[in-house]
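**Fold tokens**
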Amino acid sequence: MQSFNLARPWCLGRVGPAAVGVCVLIVALAGCAPTQMIALSVSPEPAVLFVDGKRLDELPESVELTANKDHTLFVQREGYRSQLIIVRTAEREDGEDFLSPERVEVSLKREATSAPGITVEIDEAEEERAP
């Protein structure tokens, strides 16, 4: 059974401090990806929003997304057709990444339903032949 000393990182015993420093730098830089707020309007409410496959507990007025990759927004509500929106990354002339669209408006449409207990059947008509 291996134990970990929380006061001293486990990797220091296996690699040198320089390697640990490089790892910390990589993690720090990866965490500094530019972000962008995307305004969000959904009707009718309440609806459920999934951002990149992760369900949000509440439907926000905007979402903060990393600007260096594409994202998916999936909106659903019972009795309505779900909607999938792809927010794409692009690059400005100055080389900075940004997301488009900057504002997402979702208007969910009701699913076509039939009244309960009603069934419609159409029989093929027999051909009438002249005598």
